[in-house]
Amino acid sequence: MQYLFTYEERLKNFDWSLSENELEYKKGNIINIGWYCSDRICLKGKADKIALFYEGFGGIEKKYTFNDIRLAGNSIGTFLRNLGIKNDDRVCLFMDRIPELYLSFLGVLKIGAIVQPLFSAFGDESLFVRLENAQTRAIITQRKHLPKVRKILDRLPYLEFIVIVDHNKIKPLEKKEVAFNMEESIPVENMEIFPAHAESPSVLHYTSGTTGQPKGVKHVHYSLISQYLTAKWVLDLRDDDIYWCTADPGWVTGTSYGIIGPWSLGITQCVLDTGFSAQAWYRFIEKYRITMWYSAPTAIRSLMKAGDEIIKEHDLSSLRHLASVGEPLNSEAVIWSEKIFGKPFLDTFWQTETGSIMITNFPGMKVKPGSMGKPFPGITGVVLDPKTYQPITEPGKIGLIAFKPDWPSIMRSYWNNKEKYEEKFVNGWYLSGDKASIDNEGYFWFVGRDDDVINTGGHLVSPFEVESALLEHPAVGESAVVAKPDELNMEVVKAFITLKPGFTPGPDLELEIMNFIRKKLSPLAMPQDIEYMEKLPKTRSGKIMRRLLHAKEWGEDIGDISTLEND
Ligand code: WT7
User: Fold this and answer.
1) DSSP bridge partners of 425
2) CB neighbourhood size of 238 (10 A)
3) Which of 3.20.20.70, 3.30.300.30, 3.40.50.2000, 3.10.450.50 is the CATH number of 454-554?
4) Which of 437, 529, 554, 523 is nearest to 479 (CA)?
5) Which of the listed residues 424, 432, 434 should we mutate to test ligand 1's pocket, taking the one with most ligand atoms within 8 A of CB?
6) What is the pLDDT of residues 238-297, one digit of tens each?
7) Can you give the pLDDT at residue 350?
């Protein structure tokens, strides 16, 4: 397959106005992502083209044209507007990957409200801190998730509406609950779209840091300029593609490239809302003749583990382009995909805060397995000396990945957290919080994070959140949470705990504590390993030395322990 342009050609005279022109956007004009992803595509003559093929549990299949998603967005938007939801109000989407999730995303944006997507496997505590921080006014959810919402409702004075998309009318609605059934709703042919401008807020994604509660990353409608062009150039999406992004819209990949990128380009995409299995995934690719596949290293490693025999049972010849994101893509996975699919998974690097792909193996560029590639045109990416914050020019030397903060989709703030936001900028650079080196050909090589955040299977988990939740368990005295190496997920959560008097260590208690965290936070945050300790290592000032425990898990040199308590 020939690519239309080379990286070098794309770099030449690059300007984001290229994207603006294709989207027929002029500075100062209205730019509403909800409209761009549906109404505009219909106006371009693609009203009857399929926008979404959906497959859920039990073999349920649904499909929607661009006109269908336009009407559904209108219906949901109008329904919310009639409830009194207005622009800038936060509306949380708390659903599995059902069509309503994707269509509500458009509906909320169409009325100028801010979408707050949250992963539906979150437990009540994870949900609570994010709804409280954003002072969310409405949450759109399914019956199955109601118990978690009801449990925290009394602590959320700002939450006025719980919109249930699958209310069965058997059980009565409770406090603040309203029913909205998309299939039974009257199609709204025309609605007044909120006249969002470049800087009008659009999406609020929560991301975890080392300390403190998760931060709400605020994006604006102008982010479309980045998302559209990166989807077009890096994911190489073309009009007749059938695209599959395996990420959940609770995370940024699932919105930037699971909704906004493909739909603003008028591309048909597929969603599979069943759990992972190699068999199910290959069958899905075969059935829908998927051509472009955007996935993550942990999934790729799981497929490698499932073996090559099973691949022979499927016709995967439709695939023409593959890409990956979220965690380091090891060279073995790149080489394996080249052997099996005849093309490598192209690694892409970016973050919730960047809103779009920053460093990438550009289609057609020479692939160096294990490298993340080079900055996208229009992105100035460097590694900085950690002491001076000056760009390192020496090839191979490790520094902090940083970007000149001037691309369209960079976050505009952390919600209500100016201090943490300002910490991200030094000397005119945006600090990603990751470390890398750059080789003599300008390729970036990922080294690791520059903080204690755990990246498990491509999902960031805050040690602070897990430690706080552990302390709420009656048996736990103190806790320290670190990453532990894992073959499949790269890292998993490990907890060191001391017990309160009267509790005895043992496998039953371990299981109970694990489940406690799974329910409260999420399956991702659940420690895969709990180690009981008599005492946690602390500095003389009483701070738990996570670094020491981390080094122990990774078999690394323990480093300077001169501040360790010496009794
Ligand atoms: C962190 C961002 C937007 C992507 C989904 C995750 C890590 C991301 C790579 C990669 C090595 C990667 C970094 C980054 N990460 N892509 N290609 N190679 N690490 O978004 O939850 O904001 O996480 O994921 O540590 O900072 P996120």
Assistant:
1) 430
2) 15
3) 3.30.300.30
4) 529
5) 434
6) 999 999 999 999 999 999 999 999 999 999 999 999 989 999 999 999 999 999 999 999
7) 98
Collapsed DSSP state (helix, strand, coil) of residue 64:
strand
Q: Which of 217, 235, 246, 350 gets mutated to test ligand 1 (max ligand atoms within 8 A of its CB)?
A: 350
Q: With respect to CATH, is domain 7-436 assigned 3.40.50.12780?
A: yes
Return the domain boundaries, the chain.
Answer: 7-436, 454-554
User: Is residue 566 scored above 70 in pLDDT?
Assistant: no
Taking Cα atoms as reference points, which of 514, 521, 479 lies closest to residue 497? 479
Question: Does ligand 1 lie within 6 Å of residue 449's CB atom?
Answer: yes
433 lines ligand 1 (CB under 6 A): yes
The amino acid at 279: Q
Place of tokens 């897990």: 466
In sequence order, what DSSP letters do the residues of 19-37 get, joined into one string? HHHHTT--TTS---HHHHH
Q: Which of 71, 94, 35 is nearest to 185 (CA)?
A: 71
Instruction: Looking at 164-276, list the stretches that DSSP marks H as alpha helix, in order from N- to C-terminal side.
Output: 224-233, 252-255, 261-264
Name the band, by pLDDT with cuts 50, 70 and 90, for residue 540: confident
The per-residue DSSP string of 535-553 comes to: S--BBTTS-B-HHHHHHHH
Q: What is the pTM of this model?
A: 0.95
Select from 385, 396, 384 the least CA-distant residue to 440: 396
Tell me the per-residue pLDDT of 436-485, one tens digit each, with 9 for 90 and over. Answer: 999 999 999 999 999 999 999 999 999 999 999 999 999 999 999 999 99
Asked whether 141 and 94 are in contact (CB, 8 A), the reply is yes
